[in-house]
Amino acid sequence: YVGLGSGDIMRLFINASTGVLEVMRVGPPGDGLVTARQGRINQIMKTPSEWLFVAYGGDTASHNASIFKIDTSTILEDPETHKRFMPWHHVYQHSVQNLDIVAMGYSTADDGIPRLHFAVERASPDTAASLMLQITRPLVGPESINTTYDFFQVTSIIRMPEDDMGDPLITGTPFQVLV
């Protein structure tokens, strides 16, 4: 997976049966992301499963850094544009604009609970260090676990997997959203 300056991701794959290099643009799907979520790719991280985490945006005054998880096991096609893509799911959006997510890591160390660790760049030269954050169980949908998501930051937004409200990646129409 290669992050392009346009914000797109290109997947390079060698077909095992033919030996041919296949190139596919992974996303974002449809006509792209809403303005506040647009930008460049700062980090790409593959998990042990079929998910790819991408730190995206935050590079200008009107954009907030976000983390998306991309389902690499599914390839869809937009019926209008015929663009092939993998489903994107929004996991995190930082509350302060114009700050990048500069590092990401994934672990299940010491207690077996998966955690997504990430760092948001410092807000100003007066701030001593980057902000270090983590989200537990970032790959599990909230409806399928009995425990809550542990999230350690008061001022940001966390979107549980499948938000799909306002993102052009849904294949159907939601009729009701409950919080």
What does this structure look like?
With 179 residues, the protein is an all-beta fold. It has strands spanning 2-3, 9-14, 21-27, 41-46, 51-56, 64-71, 76-77, 84-85, 88-97, 101-107, 115-120, 131-136, 157-158. Helices cover 0% and strands 39% of the residues. The strands form four sheets. Strands 4-5-6-9-13 form a five-stranded antiparallel sheet, with no helix packed on it. It is globular. The chain starts with a strand and ends in a 21-residue tail after the last strand.
Sum up the structure in keywords:
179 residues, 13 strands, three-stranded antiparallel sheet, single chain, five-stranded antiparallel sheet, mainly beta
* Class per helix and strand makeup: mainly beta
Note the run of SSEs as H and E.
Answer: EEEEEEEEEEEEE
Shape, per Cα inertia axes: globular
Q: Strand order, biggest sheet?
A: 4-5-6-9-13
Note the gap between the termini.
Answer: 34 Å
- Count of runs of 4 or more consecutive helical residues: 0
- The total beta strand count reads 13
Strand content: 35-45%
Please, what is the average pLDDT?
76
**Uncertain parts:** none
User: The biggest beta sheet, please?
Assistant: 5 strands, antiparallel
Rg over CA atoms, rounded to whole Å, is 17 Å
Helix content: under 10%
